UniProtKB/TrEMBL annotation:
GO biological process, one term: thiamine diphosphate biosynthetic process
InterPro entries membership: TPK_catalytic (IPR007371), TPK_catalytic_sf (IPR036759)
A Pfam family it matches: TPK_catalytic
Species of origin: Spirobacillus cienkowskii
Protein name: Thiamin pyrophosphokinase catalytic domain-containing protein
Length: 236
């Protein structure tokens, strides 16, 4: 039985806004910033700065953060929406704010993932992340590790697409791009099995160790990935 897949769009505080590929999983596609219309957007602290900068047409904004990276425009926006950054929980019909303590032991992104996980234990999940890569390397690594933890905790599996060049997935997915796209596939687990089609090296492939990644190149406009029981990471 195919499980229902739900998509979420998250804005973080990195530097990479977009990628040159499109990702598909179970009839759910990635998008680009200029095509976001009437969506519910999740913003982790400084990620709200980008939502404001791009003047995105959103159905709802769900903001979670400790407010240490907000621009003046973002603070004014929250005030205009009657969301008080000094109040731990503020809600209106169209927006939500959850303020976090600055001395917490987890990231703002982790708090958003925990919220999504709690409500989607019976669903597969497609998460598209803008501005999740770039900037401080420790923040970038923390984002990738939290995404990995989220996918491993998700009973029905899912996918996290970081614009800028990384996909983590435990479910089937496809990437659309021009031919001859160079990419690599890794898994941190021993003897990870994966099926690939539409690439120079395709078929049933065994990744023996974390250092035994597969450098590959697309031969078509579509490349299909099928993880067989493990989490894979695709770099492009």
């Amino acid at each position: 039985m195919r499980h229902k897949i739900k998509k979420f769009i998250i804005f973080l505080n990195g530097t990479y806004a977009s990628s040159h590929i499109r990702v598909l999983s179970h009839n759910t596609y990635s998008t680009t910033i200029d095509k976001i219309k009437n969506e519910t957007l999740y913003a982790a602290d400084g990620g709200l700065n980008y939502v404001i900068k791009h003047n995105l047409n959103s159905q709802k904004i769900i903001y979670i953060g400790d407010n240490d990276s907000l621009s003046r425009k973002s603070k004014k926006f929250l005030d205009k929406k009657n969301l008080n950054i000094n109040n731990y929980n503020s809600k209106t019909e169209y927006n939500e704010l959850t303020a976090l303590n600055k001395d917490k032991c987890f990231s703002d992104f982790a708090a958003i993932l925990d919220l999504i996980l709690k409500d989607n234990l019976k669903n597969q999940v497609f998460i598209e992340i803008f501005y999740g890569l770039g900037g401080r390397k420790d923040h970038e690594m923390a984002n990738l590790l939290e995404a990995e933890k989220f996918l491993l905790d998700l009973p029905q599996g899912g996918l996290c697409y970081f614009h800028g060049g990384v996909i983590l997935s435990t479910i089937d997915c496809m990437i659309y791009s021009e031919k001859n796209l160079s990419f690599s596939v890794f898994s941190k687990y021993k003897k990870c099995e994966i099926e690939i089609s539409g690439a120079k090296y395709e078929g049933h492939i065994l990744l023996e160790r974390p250092s035994h990644g597969l450098s590959n190149q697309s031969t078509a406009n579509e490349v299909l990935f099928k993880p067989l029981g493990s989490l894979i990471t695709i770099y492009f």
